[in-house]
Amino acid sequence: MARPRSEVARQKALTAAFELIAEVGIAGLTVDAVAKKSGVAKSTIYRNFDDSDTLLFAAINAAVEPFPTPNTGSLRDDLITLHQQMCSMVDDGSMRRLLLGILGRAAVDENFRRLKDEFQRERHQPLRTIVELAQARGELSADLDVEFVITMIEGPIAARMIYAGESIDDDEIPIFVDAVLDGLRPR
């Protein structure tokens, strides 16, 4: 008879995985390394996670709190609030390295890209809700593609923070938000 899954062992594995990601990056995350660091048997890890990639995204999900969805009644204010939260998280050098590692691996590994896309869809939900509420209020055209809008809103900040490796101060966020909204608002 198979042994039941242990939530304590699962949490130990997730914690060890996230610590390993911070120490050695995603390339160094293996089930063997997690087992060694956590003291959890490999068989137990495999009962909880299909492979090291699934473990990677589960560890990130467990360690990084999802952003709450602001709902001020203003698209601009909601985006500024959300981006302040995002920028403070990405400004951490280890988080920037993690994101770059994920993007690099997703570019060459189809299965990993699928996991990344699923993770990203879930993490985009607050932004998706903000855009849909803005469409319902008439701040954005109802016929705009929500995924396109998300790309336009995230693009400039991601380019600066992740690709260029530069910080964005809280007083700069409204400048980014206003520039994007000027191009998206109905004319």
Q: Any overview of this molecule?
A:
- The structure is a single chain.
- By secondary structure, this protein is an all-alpha fold.
- It folds into two domains: 7-63, Homeodomain-like (Arc Repressor Mutant, subunit A, Orthogonal Bundle), CATH 1.10.10; 75-184, Tetracycline Repressor, domain 2 (Orthogonal Bundle).
- The protein has helices at residues 7-24, 31-38, 42-48, 52-63, 75-90, 93-108, 110-123, 125-137, 146-163, 173-184.
- The model has no long low-confidence stretch (mean pLDDT 88).
Give a brief rundown of this model.
This protein is mostly helical and 187 residues long. It has helices at residues 7-24, 31-38, 42-48, 52-63, 75-90, 93-108, 110-123, 125-137, 146-163, 173-184.
Name a few traits of the molecule.
Arc Repressor Mutant, subunit A; Tetracycline Repressor, domain 2; 2 domains; 187 residues; mainly alpha
Oligomer state equals single chain
In sequence order, what are the helices and strands, one letter per element? HHHHHHHHHH
Shape: elongated
CATH fourth-tier homologous superfamily of the largest domain? Tetracycline Repressor, domain 2
Itemize the secondary structure elements and their pairings.
Layout: H1 7-24, H2 31-38, H3 42-48, H4 52-63, H5 75-90, H6 93-108, H7 110-123, H8 125-137, H9 146-163, H10 173-184
